[in-house]
Design brief:
Oligomer: single chain
Structural class: alpha/beta
Distance between the termini: 35 Å
Number of strands: 10
Number of helices: 12
Order of helices and strands: EEEHEHEHEHEHEHEHHHHEHH
Largest sheet: 8 strands, parallel
Radius of gyration: 19 Å
Helix content: 40-55%
Strand content: 5-15%
Strand order of the largest sheet: 3-4-5-6-7-8-9-10
CATH topology: TIM Barrel
CATH class: Alpha Beta
């Protein structure tokens, strides 16, 4: 496993992490089982992954509990724990309470990366107040690093200007061959400022893994209501999926591994694909340690852009 720096001067984390959203309950399907999710995380750690992402909002803390069991089994020193405070808990006192609850569920004394899950859409708690609360938690030794999630450049800049000494090391955003909005300005800003981008939904909830077609659509609640899975949109993305599959065959890889590699080849971008079974953890790790050819990346970029221009808005 290759390790990269989180942010400009942050710790070393695996170039491919894992996300534990699936461990939050049955919303990802009736086949989601706590034991399997825990085993998947342990397997990923055994294969060199140390970055594990979760959130208090995933199953109202259930994902953090599953992650906590896996940490105890795998060993605390082998895991870089990233979790998130909900957008409903951004007032200073609520931030502190949420952090204590997350620490308890995870079974640790310190969270490695504590992230604001979403900017508060109603601005009930101004970003500066939230950030100052996070900086206090850092000084108290409850968290090591501060991150944000789903922040645009303007929000990141406001957050950074709120600190007296701390800074943001990462922004977690939806990013994949089928979600390239960060490239409108955030990727260049993050690269210039030394802020890592953690890419959630890096295989577009399974579409880029070549799992779904108009005749084979997912039934779980997370994906079934997502516009990307409309039959007409699955038809539109078929050329991109076919190219991903062709590229994978050329490297002896799977389509999911190519989609993850496309992201990991971007400096400062770390994909965090979800896992709910050990086999998925093994597949994700297969995205590390190699690179796409320049011509392959260019072809994927062109096909992705063409497909995105034809998608029914989602």
């Amino acid at each position: 496993m290759k390790y990269v720096t989180l942010g400009r001067k942050g710790p070393k984390v695996s170039e491919v992490g894992i996300g534990m959203w699936q461990a939050g309950g049955k919303s990802w399907g009736q086949d989601v089982v706590d034991h399997d999710c825990q085993q998947a995380m342990e397997r990923a750690i055994d294969l060199g992954v140390n970055l594990v992402d979760t959130a208090e909002a995933y199953g109202e803390g259930h994902s953090e509990e599953v992650v906590g069991h896996a940490i105890r089994a795998a060993g605390r020193d082998r895991v870089f724990i990233a979790t998130k405070v909900s957008g409903d808990h951004l007032r200073p006192r609520d931030v502190e309470r949420a952090c204590r609850r997350s620490l308890r569920r995870l079974g640790v004394r310190e969270i490695d990366l504590y992230q604001v899950h979403w900017p508060n859409p109603w601005e009930l708690s101004p970003i500066p107040e939230t950030m100052k609360a996070l900086e206090r938690l850092q000084r108290q030794g409850r968290i090591r690093h501060i991150g944000v999630s789903n922040f645009d450049v303007r929000d990141v800049e406001e957050a950074r200007s709120s600190f007296s000494r701390a800074d943001i090391v990462s922004d977690q955003v939806q990013y994949s061959l089928l979600h390239r909005e960060p490239e409108a300005g955030l990727t260049s800003y993050a690269k210039r400022e030394g802020i890592a981008l953690l890419a959630w939904s890096p295989i577009a909830k399974g579409v880029l893994a070549a799992k779904y077609t108009p005749a084979n659509r997912p039934k779980d609640s997370i994906r079934s209501d997502n516009d990307l899975f409309r039959p007409q949109n699955l038809k539109v993305v078929a050329p991109l999926v076919a190219l991903v599959r062709k590229t994978a065959k050329a490297h002896g890889k799977t389509p999911a591994q190519v989609a993850l590699r496309w992201l990991a080849d971007h400096p400062g971008v770390i994909p965090i694909p979800g896992v709910k079974r050990p086999a998925q953890a093994e597949e994700n790790v297969g995205a590390a340690g190699w690179s796409l050819r320049r011509a392959e990346r260019a072809a994927l970029d062109r096909t992705s852009a063409a497909v995105l221009g034809r998608l029914d808005t989602f």
